[in-house]
Amino acid sequence: MALARAEGRRLLRHPIVLASIPFCVGTFLLLTWNQAPVLSRDDILTGLALCPLSGAVFLAAHLGATRSFRHGTDELYEGTVTTPAQRTAGHLLSVLWTIGPSVLLVVAGLLYLVALRAVGRPDPVELLTGPSLVVLGGVLGVALARWWRAALAGPVGVVALAAIEIFLVWQTSAGRPENDPNPVRWLAPWVPIAISGDPPRELVVRPSGWHLVFIISLALLFGGIALLRAGVRAHAVAATAGALALILVAGSAQVRAPTAAQRRSLADFLVHPEKHQVCQIRASVRYCAYRGYAGWIDRWAAAVTPVTSRVPAPARPKDVEIIQTLVVYGSDVGEADLQGSPAASQFGYNPTEDDLGSAITPGNQWGRGKYEGRDELAMDLIVAAQVVGLPRRPQDVRLTAAEARRILAGYEPSERADAAKQIHAGGAWDYCTSVGQARAVLALWLAAQATSRTESTFRGVLARDPYGIQVVRSGSDVNVRNGQDFTFGGPMQGELATLQYELQTFNFPVQWSKTEATYALQLLNQPTARVSEALARNWALLTRPSTTTDELVQVMGLRPLPSYDEQLREAGVSPVHAKSVIRNLTDPANADPSLVPCR
Amino acid sequence: MAAELVRPTVRVIRWVPLLVACGLAFIQVFVQTRDVCPRSDPCLGQEARVLALRIAAILIALGAAFVLDDPTEETTGHFPAPRWLRRAVRVGLVAPVVALTWALLIPLALRSSVATDPFPTGALTLELSTLVIAALALSAASARFVPEGMGGVAAGPILLGLVAAAHYLPQRLAVFLLDPQTPRWNAAHDVWKVLLLIAIAALAFVSRDPWRRSLLRLRREAAQPARRDT
Given this model, what pLDDT does residue A475 score? Predict the structure, then answer.
């Protein structure tokens, strides 16, 4: 014990171990910095975060156990009262001194997440995985030192362990479906929640208890192997054999693929969500979250309420619903388990045939910091579209006969008959454009003004892809004689349209144009109360589908945007050159025939 | 002088770590690039082969770190062969072994590849060269802090620490990229070229002969007592 105590203290003070702690902290921060914390998911990440410490303890334990060999003092130890086996046992026990700091790191990580308004409950077994990996690292280091004393062995051992981890976790599952990874991955020291995707803890089967037993029995096995180097003793053989038996039991128990019953039980979360969710109504909006995520209703309401509160009371819609779903991709739930439920749309979705309803469906992830702004804006854009009367689902976009004919004309004659079954007058269509509609400006402003994060996200999106033709005066791709180059990102604001996918919502059809977004930005630059009051006064007019953006510009006293030609002329481009630039970049004759107006 | 150093240097170099590391690299590359899927639908992409060869490069560098270990360095300081020359001979003797191992590892990693895109052999060789020379420089630099001048003991963990730290760089500065088609691949390998130059300069710097001072410095030192006398 005295040797264990002395070596344990040296191990904790070893420069390699101390240097690994910032790596542990850095790993944990990198893994969690852009997500609202979910303790039932982030507890698994504590294991990965402690891997640098595990590697460091492995190296330091190897160096400690080979110290006498490197210094040529092995023979001097022969004169002491301890036997080689006792010295090995001392080194093995010294590894237990690392449990304190590793548990401390795990607790610090949890407290950090709790301070960030975490939801969910951590699994104590998952939390113990990290410290057990640190102990395993130390025991492996001592065992390696007893059988391979060369200084090379430590670093090579760390690389080998990293390669084994990568091989078992990722490479054994290569070529298999995302929802059926190879269970052999459980023989790796640390196992992520999924090989690909980011499913919730609720939709994966994790034999974490057996895995902890497996890790501990591996530590016991290698401890026994280290002791056997000093001679075959009965207790060492018994410990090794016992650990081996335990490894076989725990190893075989954990590498079983989830059973059909387990998969069905997981799928129940999606097939019958109402059984697992809690619902609340706040400011006439209905929110439903899975029990572990109930704390997120506050986050969602904080984003949605500032949108609905700007709507005059009589015009407030009663049918806005935020109903959480869970991400299936990468989970242990297969498509067959979800037959008939709306969640099956995550495997494949036909917008003209499948009606997914009008609820907004945030998933099991919610951003933090600027990423929270993106999620909030995505949610608020849909809510705002609903409150101003824009279509919510493809089923709300009814094609006219002329539009159906125009879209079908774009198909090959051989495919046209088949396509006509879905594309017909009165039929659903998966997207529509809000170009030229005053209510689109209104919706964009309502969404952008909701929180400081939505405003900053909205401004960022427009700054990255602004309205009009941009004149670039220098750069590597300048290709015209007068040193000017021109960029044009199209009339539509693509990033705003794709934000919905971050919420696992695939059926919001509205496409936003840069013109309306830029007018919304002008409104955003004015005092919110004044804009809100003016909009409330003119609500009926501005939300009417026939009211144009130009009318809104007049009513709200906005500055009309320059046309593309005016923009180029202001930038000093000659009229002839401007005409050719507009023709080449905007290609007005090649307008998308499938783009229909939102009604 | 260098030719006369070759035979004794061959005898004193610590070959075992390097050869063991090379042997392990063969096993690791073989296992990691074994594609169990049919050739018509392979499971392993170029990323997996790049990763396997990169891990092999780290293993080789760890083994090479012991090549400069010389417990007699202090006692042989007065020999006519300067330290940089003795170290250059060691590096020169090891280089063919590393080159041969690498030349065999690449076809081993690509044995089941059906990719039509060219494999980034040159870029990975640049990474190997940088890692090996960095390991040698770290070994030489840390020799003075390690008992009996066995810098290889310290160089391995330091190299692993640097490799681990590089993985924490933000995406726009990343140097360990897996997909050769990624837009940053070439820029990252420009960084590797700079790192190689730094590693070479560091190795040259730490291999200066401490027992041979410049004439200017000797004259200055000789002049100082004279000034005190006056």
Answer: 47
Tens of pLDDT, residues A451-510: 999 999 999 999 998 888 877 765 444 444 456 677 787 888 889 989 998 888 888 999
> What ipTM was estimated for this complex?
0.74
- For β-strands A510-511 and A432-433, DSSP reports them as parallel
Distance of alpha carbon A271 from alpha carbon A264, whole angstroms = 9
| C-alpha distance from A160 to closest chain B C-alpha (Å) | 8
Sign of CA dihedral B121, B125, B131, B134: negative
Q: For residue A174, give the nearest of B55, B19, B43, B76 by alpha carbon.
A: B43
Q: Which chain B positions have a beta carbon within 8 Å of A26's beta carbon?
A: 168
Cβ of residue B122 closer than 8 Å to a chain A Cβ: no
Cα angle A557, A558, A561 (rounded to 5 degrees) comes to: 145
CA A262 from chain center: how many Å?
25
- Whether chain A has a CB inside 8 Å of the CB on B216: the answer is no
Task: State whether B156 and A152 contact (CB < 8 Å).
Answer: yes
Give B19 to chain A, closest Cα distance, Å: 11
Q: SS3 of B33, please? A: coil
CA distance A90 to A84: 10
- Whole-angstrom Cα Rg for chain B: 21
d(CA A132, CA A452): 43
Question: Angle B2-12/B83-109 helices, nearest 10 degrees?
Answer: 60
Strands A285-290 and A321-323: parallel
Say which amino acid occupies A415.
E
Which band of pLDDT confidence, cut at 50, 70 and 90, is reported for residue A422?
A: confident
Lookup: tokens for B70 = 């010389």
pLDDT of residue B230: 41
Q: What percent of chain A has pLDDT over 70?
A: 97
Distance CA B41, CA A293 (A): 40
B50, B178 in Cβ contact below 8 A?
A: yes
Q: Does B51 touch chain A (CB under 8 A)?
A: yes
CB-CB neighbours of A238 under 10 Å? 11
Q: Indicate the burial class of A75 (C-beta count within 10 angstroms; 0-12, 13-18, 19 or more).
A: exposed
Q: Are A514 and A491 in contact (CB under 8 A)?
A: yes
- Residues 6 or more apart whose CB falls under 8 angstroms from that of A235 comprise none
Whether residue B160 and residue A155 make contact (CB cut-off 8 A), yes or no, is: yes
| Residue B219 confidence class, pLDDT cut points 50, 70, 90 | low
CA distance B11 to A341: 73
What is residue A391's predicted lDDT score, i.e. its pLDDT? 93
Give the amino acid at B60: I
Q: Is B157 within 8 Å of A16 when comparing Cβ atoms?
A: yes
pLDDT of residue A143: 93
Name residue A488's beta-bridge partners.
Answer: A469
CB A79 within 8 A of CB A160: no
Q: What is the pLDDT of residues A579-590, one digit of tens each?
A: 887 877 776 656
Q: Is the dihedral of CA B214, B216, B222, B224 positive or negative?
A: negative
Instruction: Supply the pTM of this predicted model.
Output: 0.83
Nearest-Cα residue of chain B relative to residue A27:
B168
Looking only at the bridges linking them, the beta strands covering A596-597 and A277-282 are unpaired
Give residues with Cβ within 8 angstroms of A153, minimum separation 6: A62, A144, A145
Supply the DSSP symbol for B147.
G
- Render the burial of A300-323: b for 16+ CB within 10 Å, e for the rest: bbebbbbbbebbeeeeeeeebbbb
CA A97 to chain CA centroid, Å, is: 36
- Inter-chain residue contact B24 with A63, CB threshold 8 Å: no
Contact status of B20 with chain A (Cβ, < 8 Å): yes
Reading phi first (left if > 0) and then psi (alpha if -120 to 50, else beta), residue A120 is in: left
Structure tokens at A163: 């390669």
- Type of residue numbered A230: A
